[in-house]
Amino acid sequence: MVTNPIPQFPAGFLWGVSTSAHQIEGAADAREPSVWDVFTAEPGRVKDGSTAAVACDHYHRYREDVALLADLGVDAYRFSVSWPRVNSPGGLDFYDRLVDELCAAGVRPVVTLFHWDLPVTLDWLERDTASRFADYASAVAGRLGDRVAKWITLNEPAEHTLLGHALGAHAPGRRLMFDALPVAHHQLLAHGLAVRALRAAGAGDIGIANSHGPTWPASATPEDMAAAEFYDVLLNRLFSDPLLLGRYPEGIGELMAKSPEDVATDLKVIAEPVDWYGINYYAPTRVGAPQGEEIAFGGLSLPSELPFSVREIEGRPVTDFGWPVVPEALTELLTGFRERYGDRLPPVVVTENGCSCEGVEDRERIAYLDGHIRALHRAVEAGVDVRGYFVWSLLDNFEWAEGYARRFGLVHVDYTTLERTPKASYGWLRDLLRARR
Ligand code: FCB
Q1: Measuring CA to CA, which residue among 284, 279, 401, 380 is closest to residue 18?
Q2: Atom 5 (ligand 1): residue with closest C-alpha?
Q3: What is the distance in A from the centroid of ligand 1 to the CA of 235?
Q4: Do residues 58 and 65 make contact, with C-beta atoms less than 8 angstroms apart?
Q5: N or C: which end of the chain has fewer CB within 10 A?
Q6: What class of enzyme is it (predicted)?
Q7: What pLDDT digit, counting tens, does each position of 105-122 carry?
Q8: How far, in Å, CA of 79 to CA of 301, rounded?
Q9: H or E element at residue 309
């Protein structure tokens, strides 16, 4: 059991929890379909064959969920707006009500504009989707901008590109391998255009949420080192270098230069300064040279033709998802970011961190969060300007291709009755937040 008090974070540090629209809202009949609705309807795509048509029914139960947030005592709540819902009559009214409810409860709304549920009529392979995204961002800001505390343009464009378009494990289920790179570029362009559109609509405090984690080479052989370097570029630099330095990493830059698009001009839009940079962290990855066979990795099956292979991190507890629990890698990640980007790195917010485990007496989750919050504090002590920490997630929810089999919530959801039951970790976090005051 955890006994030492968590050290104090700087004044104004924002404590929050995160969710996303497709994973919790349900009410699929009150919006246009998204690429995820199409994907989940295809047999074999989602492990337990489930869909998010009802999910946690947050759309109808948001008042109860906001009461849970208020009781938990978080400063902020990160949720996403569903673009397909906004495209549907009355769609923005729901978010208007939610934001009002949050403000009345003293919880600051943090809005993600895109958390993977693209309207089915759109496609990230098309450049025009970037402009459509900026129009959508303006519409949301026009309606909610007076009450939203922070904006996030995109959630994890790296995972969305890799899982959705390169490997086919997520919607829209394409297996394009490196031909998926235009999807990365168009999302980055969408981000830059949306930053401008949000500012033009009077919105401020704008960031992005990217997934990152240290890459550890399997050994010091040149083959393993080169493979790890390549993986690191894909996960840790493909999006942050253009955003923060205004250029693509070497190698990727050459691939992009072959595209018919004016990448150099686009990079000026992409590098529009953000007010803060969001990092979603779960685990580090050990990477070595390709081993010539299809391998299982965190619920995924990675094709053998990739120029790297993912290896096990031994000697660590693993979550239900099979992800190793390595809190100190969060300190390494954040101090490494500070070293790489120096003064180009704006203040950082950890926009997601958490683990999947079963049960309401979730001691593993408490240990996970405790370890990671301490690791975060060490990064602050080392001089990284970290302004907030958001737990993934408030509720158990629809975990994409894993369906309802993975439970990340501080609050248990019974998917038959939709009853919410706060877990031990919810009580632990509430006590932590109260002690801080
Ligand atoms: C992140 C996603 C989030 C959730 C967690 C477990 O990659 O942003 O929606 O699925 O993983």
Answers
A1: 279
A2: 392
A3: 15
A4: yes
A5: C
A6: hydrolase
A7: 999 999 999 999 999 999
A8: 29
A9: strand 309-311
CA distances from 376 to 190, 285, 372, 393 (A): 30, 19, 6, 18
- In this prediction, residue 254 has a pLDDT band, given cuts at 50, 70 and 90, of confident
Look up the CATH number of the domain holding residue 218.
3.20.20.80
Alpha carbon of residue 144 to chain centroid: 21
Q: Are strands 348-352 and 386-392 parallel, antiparallel or unpaired?
A: parallel
E strands, 57-114, are 76-80, 108-114
8 A C-beta contact, residue 132 and residue 118? no
3-state SS class at 317: coil
Work out the angle between the directed axes of helices 363-381 and 424-436 (0-180°, nearest 10).
Answer: 30
In a domain, 217, yes or no: yes
Number of domains in the chain: 1
Which pLDDT score, from 0 to 100, does residue 295 have? 65
- The residues, any chain, with a CB within 8 Å of residue 417's CB and separated by 6 or more, are none
Mean of pLDDT over the chain:
96
Name the residue with tokens 């998802």: 321
Dmax over CA atoms of the chain, in Å, equals 58
- The residue whose two tokens read 């969920």 is 65
Q: Domain for residue 142, yes or no?
A: yes
In a domain, 323, yes or no: yes
Nearest CA to ligand 1 atom 2: 156
Domain span at residue 113 reads: 14-436
SS3 296: strand
**Closest by Cα among 425, 42, 14, 419 to 205:** 14
Atom of ligand 1 nearest to the CA of 23: 9
Nearest atom within ligand 1 for CA of residue 399: 10
Spot the catalytic one: 25, 32, 101, 156.
156
DSSP calls for 220-252 = SSHHHHHHHHHHHIIIIITTHHHHHHSSPPTTH
Token pair, residue 126, equals 């098309």
- Confirm whether 400 is domain-assigned: yes
Task: Fill in the DSSP letter of residue 160.
Answer: I
156 is catalytic: yes
pLDDT at 190 over 90: yes
Pocket, ligand 1, Cβ cutoff 6 A? 20, 23, 155-156, 159, 211, 280, 352, 392, 399-400, 408
Cis peptide before 157 (omega within 30 of 0): no
Question: Does pLDDT of 2 surpass 60?
Answer: no
Catalytic residue among 25, 32, 101, 352: 352
Q: Provide DSSP, 366-409.
A: HHHHHHHHHHHHHHHHTT--EEEEEEE-SB----GGGGGG----
